[in-house]
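Query structure, 305 tokens:
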């Protein structure tokens, strides 16, 4: 086991390669790090490291603003070069000058087939039971903006979902219905600018619930989901079950026909290729196949006990 304190202070990408080499050789890495800098941006390489984590523990501090004492402080501001923990409300009050209570961000992440949307739909159902009507949005590049579909909830009920093609289209929907307080976004990895916009929504008091894949099929950070992991107040990190060995699976294996045979897609394949069970499988790292993956410069021999 390797324990690394203050991992987000390392500025070189070497830290990501090193942690990957350690974990891929069968070693356990336990690391602590700051999620955000004082400007509210993800701290150095923490997003890539969180995207590969098997477990994420969000530690909170006590808000040091005035008499607040909030126990969920997960933002920092700098006073005389000293970091001070602030709750979201007092952080945004200080940085954005807002005067509302900040909203909360919940992320539902994991590989394909990890039932991420199950917990997300449960949250939508709970909001409905409490008499609220959350705004549910999904990416649909084919359909015209504003067209509606429905998501099926577990209770056999349906809830309208609005197809949008860019994240800022949410702004028009909020203007149309000022009573909305909760925004639920499916497949957040596909929306460019979602990090900045989510932070803006939180500062204005909206609660945001986002599902997403932290990693592409070839283990690269997927869109802005890893950065959102640094911003989140709560992360629900699910695993799937590896189709090859039955162990917990954190990766999405892409398959594609190569010369008439279904094969693992090469590492350099296109980034975005939508598909379901015909093109993807959940796999653990040992069973993941990525032909052509460049060798890690820190590659270590497999640990044998
Ligand atoms: Zn506070
Ligand atoms: Zn496996």
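Result returned for the query:
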């Amino acid at each position: 086991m390797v324990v690394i304190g203050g991992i987000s202070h390392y500025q070189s990408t070497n830290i990501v390669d090193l942690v990957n080499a350690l974990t891929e050789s069968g070693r356990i890495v336990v690391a602590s790090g700051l999620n955000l800098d004082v400007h509210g941006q993800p701290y150095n390489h923490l997003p890539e490291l969180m995207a590969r984590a098997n477990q994420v523990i969000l530690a909170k501090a006590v808000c040091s603003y005035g008499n607040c004492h909030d126990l969920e402080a997960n933002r920092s501001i700098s006073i005389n070069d000293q970091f001070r923990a602030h709750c979201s409300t007092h952080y945004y009050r200080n940085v954005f000058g807002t005067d509302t209570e900040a909203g909360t961000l919940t992320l539902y992440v994991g590989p394909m087939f990890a039932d991420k949307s199950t917990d997300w739909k449960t949250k939508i159902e709970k909001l409905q039971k409490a008499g609220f009507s959350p705004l549910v949005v999904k990416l649909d590049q084919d359909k015209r903006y504003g067209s509606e579909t429905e998501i099926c909830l577990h209770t056999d009920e349906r809830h309208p979902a609005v197809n949008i093609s860019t994240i800022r289209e949410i702004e028009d929907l909020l203007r149309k219905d000022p009573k909305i307080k909760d925004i639920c976004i499916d497949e957040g990895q596909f929306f460019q600018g979602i990090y900045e916009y989510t932070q803006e929504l939180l500062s204005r008091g909206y609660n945001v619930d986002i599902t997403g894949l932290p990693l592409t099929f070839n283990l690269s950070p997927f869109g802005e989901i890893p950065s959102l992991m640094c911003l989140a107040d709560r992360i629900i990190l699910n695993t799937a079950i590896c189709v090859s060995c039955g162990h917990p699976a954190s990766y999405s294996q892409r398959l594609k026909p190569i010369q008439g045979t279904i094969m693992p897609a090469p590492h350099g394949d296109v980034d975005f290729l939508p598909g379901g069970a015909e093109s993807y499988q959940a796999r653990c790292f040992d069973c993941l196949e990525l032909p052509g993956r460049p060798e890690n410069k820190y590659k270590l021999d497999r640990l044998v006990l």
